[in-house]
Amino acid sequence: MGQLKTAATERRSHQDFFNIAVSVDCVIFSYQDKALKVLLIKSDLKEFEGLYSLLGDLVGPDEDLEAAPYRVLQERTGLHDVYLEQVHTFGNIARHPSGRVVTTAYFSLVNNKCSNFQITHDDVCWHPVSGLKKLAFDHKIILDTCLKQLRDAVMEHPIVFNLLPEKFSLRELQDLYEAILGIELDRRNFRKRLLVKDWLVDLNEMEEDVPHRPGKLYKLRPGLKKSGRVTMEMKQKLTV
Amino acid sequence: MGQLKTAATERRSHQDFFNIAVSVDCVIFSYQDKALKVLLIKSDLKEFEGLYSLLGDLVGPDEDLEAAPYRVLQERTGLHDVYLEQVHTFGNIARHPSGRVVTTAYFSLVNNKCSNFQITHDDVCWHPVSGLKKLAFDHKIILDTCLKQLRDAVMEHPIVFNLLPEKFSLRELQDLYEAILGIELDRRNFRKRLLVKDWLVDLNEMEEDVPHRPGKLYKLRPGLKKSGRVTMEMKQKLTV
DNA sequence: GCTGCAATGTGTGTTAAGTACATATTCCTG
DNA sequence: CAGGAATATGTACTTAACACACATTGCAGC
């Protein structure tokens, strides 16, 4: 938006145009018990009694849009160095019963076994992504949109490692991919596809305390975890 | 955003949170003289004197976010049935000198030879995308982000046909792809890649008035043009 | 009207990626 | 110590991508 004085603008008062609130909503994914989970909170609006909603908040007047989801993550999970990706902005007039709110959706990949992790509110808890039916607001569509983007990204960019401990076996990694993609994969082809990407480092260590032949342990090659995807916005920051 | 009463919210007044304006910016692409063009307007802000900016506008209080770019397109080009795709939302505090504005960027593919097309403002004109240096606001980054998304989409989804007349030759189509991607393509492999996608219908007609052997004319297979990409939002509308 | 040029139309072989499936090895368990 | 179950590795087949060669058609100029 560059031209503040269009015909449409002049017809309305200045105040009208500051009657839209801006928020962010976070689809916070984690991986537990071989299933993809999402962090939800019990809705406190009576219109959505009994339903859960995503974690979000209004964007502060002095807060960069990008900073808001990091703050939400920090406030809700105690984590500050998380993977976040903007997905889509939802702005239908009637999407929020309390007023006009345009929301930008982000998805996040966190490891809930991380030492810093703690949930700070009783009504917040993890839900399996598969089988989720109805959510408050338009949050089911937001979740579906984020899940689709996650699925599209996961084979191209090394981002799923944000969901795993530092050391993991190929079986654990495959289980995670299957949970995200919702399909079964062939062990041998999966191994090849991943090793050829050169994302992994063989630690020359073995699994322990497993009830079968232990597998090799790997870690993500240093320098990749945070890279994930690079937006034009980020590129510019690097060159300035 | 679901919970209006977070700790952060309560610390501030209600009015603070309606001090953010919401806008949309359109990266309107067209294809002329074998080059990809973008529609820009001379900036009327003295901070950006001599610079061009994208076409955008504030989102009305009673206007769906998605409706705003269609309105901008309609007002600026006379076109109402255009291809639009949401790309990214930009919301840094200082991105607009006149105040806090969060903007959602869309790209659009239009055919400027369409009968309805007309530019309604003298300061609006087409610029070649390649070679563009500086734009007003953060519009260069917005443009780059949209161009990247266009490039990523163009081989997977039949969207470029929005830039062409109804009938076209494979050479014209290839020239367009080369202009978008910024690379040269092999004629024979390009032909195969496209024909196997089953996007095209052979019209059994030939080019006319060309100074060489005329090529066959094709059109897009009916029912594909508008489909392009389908978002979760759109899917929901279809099933409701 | 014939010939050469330039662009269109079509084909072929090579390489890389993805898929389906087979076999051998290792460790835990009983 | 034998059997089972999971790991580790290998091979053949199919598909897509890439590099390049040849034949065809219409226009232009002599």
Could you give the topology of this structure?
Two copies of one chain form a homodimer.
Chain A: H1 7-10, E1 21-32, E2 35-42, E3 52-53, E4 55-58, H2 67-77, E5 83-90, E6 101-109, E7 124-128, H3 139-153, H4 170-181, H5 187-195, E8 200-206, E9 216-220, H6 232-239
Parallel strand pairs in A: 1-6
Antiparallel strand pairs in A: 1-2, 1-4, 2-3, 2-7, 5-6, 8-9
The structure holds a DNA duplex (30 and 30 nucleotides).
Distance between the termini of chain A: 23 Å
**What is the N-to-C succession of helices and strands of chain A?**
HEEEEHEEEHHHEEH
How many DSSP H or I helices of chain A? Answer: 6
Mean pLDDT rating of chain A:
90
Q: What structural class should be given to the helix and strand makeup of chain A?
A: alpha+beta
Q: Which overall shape of chain A is indicated by the principal axes computed on the Cα atoms?
A: globular
Largest sheet geometry of chain A: 7 strands, mixed
**Largest interface summary:** A-B, 65 and 66 residues
Percentage of residues in DSSP E strands of chain A: 25-35%
If you compute it from the alpha carbons, what radius of gyration of chain A comes out, rounded to the nearest whole angstrom? Answer: 20 Å
Number of strands of chain A: 9
Helix content of chain A: 10-25%
Q: What oligomeric state do these chains adopt?
A: homodimer
Stretches of chain A where pLDDT is under 50 for at least 5 consecutive residues are: 2-12
